[in-house]
Every structure is written in structure tokens, then in C-alpha cells.
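Subgroup meeting minutes
Present: P.N., E.W., G.H.
Scribe: E.W.

1. P.N. recapped why we're keeping a running log of single-chain structure predictions: easier to compare across weeks, and new members can see raw inputs and outputs side by side.
2. G.H. added today's entry (364 aa).
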Amino acid sequence: MNSRERVLRAFKRMDGLPDRIPVQFDLCRSLADHFGKMLNIPVHYTENLYEDVTYRISANELRVAMGSDVVITGASVSDNYRIQKEADGTWLNEYGMRMRQGDIYVEVVDYPLALAETKSDLKNYRFPDPDAPGRFRDAENLVNTYKNDYLIIGDIEVTIFSLAHQLVGMEKLLVDMMMETEYVVPLFEACADFQTKIGLKLIEKGVDALWFGDDFGTQVSLLLPPETFREQLKPVYKKMVDQFKAAKPDIIPILHCDGAVADLLDDIRDIGFEVFNPVQPGVPGHLPHDMKTNFGEKFAFWGAIDQQDLLPNGTDDQLEQDITEKISILGKGGGYMIAPAHIIQNDVTPERVLFFIDLCKKHG
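Output recorded in log:
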């Protein structure tokens, strides 16, 4: 059984169980560079329009050599766009957000739509050109190279809600959603329109799945009332998924959503999502047994291994126990691809990364 069939079975798109639980992982740049040198594999980076997504869609040649069962690709920065860093270390990305590098992830320090109040305030903002030269060169090459052996996932993370709050600011957006300010839903629709164009291009290139990414939860609760999600966001996501399914009926819609979001999972399934990622551990409602019992008939699960504390700080025995627990519960009867809940950062040693992969193969 090759990796492609293994993941299709885990994602419930083929009858029968996989021969083992499939594995996936993302690596920060320092870890990717380390393993590239160690294994003598040149690492290729696809620079995404939103900087942190780069590490989802890069180093595929390295990750499959290390044991990943999927290839993840996405849109890259246009050939015509050049980042110019200012003296203070900040830069404008292709969305027009002023960025700086934080301790781990990038941060937006100036929002291009920070003053938006009405629909007309959106008129002067221009999203990047989906058809810009070089946008899908890497995606096309990866599909052509790996399509027969690996499931190819097209990544359109920072999709609607996350893209909107990176354009206007999180606090402003949440307040304006509660106030039902005029521009809010049109902004969600504009973000969805842009990412729909990106997703349709990825489908055209040959991806098997589309990976949305928006975080609706904190470590303890939802960021917004469920009613607000249903009124302002759910119809926009549903329209996107319907358009993708019209273009490719067998596309696999995947949602990455951090935080304690169990209260939204029925709505997320109604939208048409079939795979839920990252099943963030350690938050209310996300115990493996609860996930499998309450939602195992509705979703395949992808993730569930804690990269915040367990991977960098837990003992080997604790990591092995967690992996066996997730596999035995979430993987029972199929429907699970094991992975860290987010990108593995440089607080995890290279030896620990290899140990994690070995454990997944051993117990999967």
C-alpha cells in the first residue's frame, strides 16, 4: 500500500483500513535545514503570501524522505513581488500588511484596512493577483512529481476569518462583528472570493484536497458566539466548499482550526468539511474519546499530538504513551492521520523529531 492509498483510506475516501496510520509533520526552517544537510537533500522553500504558511508548503522532498505520507503545496509569492525590509526590520508582504518576525511566528504591526467602517472603505483595497507569474509553479511541479504515490493537499490557510483579522486587526474585527458593522460580511466575502480563486487554481493543477485554515478558538473557549459564526461566516464557507466541489466533485475539504472549537464542529460538518485538523489537545471538548465518540462518524481526524509542551519537554515515555493513546482511540476503525498539532519549532531537538516519526510508524 503506498502513501496515497493509505491516506485515502484514513480519510474515508477508499473502502477498508490503511495498513498503518498515516503520518504528517511540518518543520520550521532551522529543522528543515538541519535535516536537509543531514540527509543530503536540497530543501526547497515555497514562499507563501502569508509568511508562516511557507512552512506548511515547503520541504516536501525532505518530508517524504523522512516518512510523511502527504505532499502539501500552495500559492507562492509572485515573481514580480520583492520584499524590502526597512531599517526597523519590518516589511510589507503581498497583502500590504506590515510584518515583523516574532519569537516564533510573524506578527502584523500595521493593518491595511485598520480604518474600515463601511463597504465603500474596501473599494480601494486590492488583493494580490491570483494569476501573477510564478504563483503556482511549485504546485504544478509537486503534483507532477508526487501525484501517483502521495495524496496532494492544496493549502489555502489564512482563508477567511484569519485573513480578515490580519487585514483589519483582531480586536477591531471582533468588536465590529458584534456591532454588525457594515463592512464585516463584505470583507469576509472578499477574502473568500480571493481564496476561492487560489483554490480553483490548485484544483486545476491537480491537488486532491484543499486545506482551509482559520482559528475560531482560544485555549479555553470560542473566540466568538456560535450564533455569530452561523450568521456571518458559515454561509461564506459553505459557498466556497460548494464551488470547489462543483469544480472537482471528489475534492477533500479540510479545515485547520485551532483552539477549543467542539461547539462548532456540527456546523463545520454542515459546511462540507470532511477532515478536522489539528484536533488541538489539552483544550475543553477535545479529549480523544470525546472527539471519536461525538464526531468520529462525521470527520476524519488529522493531528492531535501536542507540540506546545509534550514534544519539546515531555519524556520519551510520555510521548510514546500519548502517541499510542491517540492511535488507539482516534485511529480505531480508521479515520485518523497522526501529526503534531502545528509546525514543529526549534525548541524540539532533531533527535526528538526522528523519535516521534519512529514511534508513529512503530505503533501505527
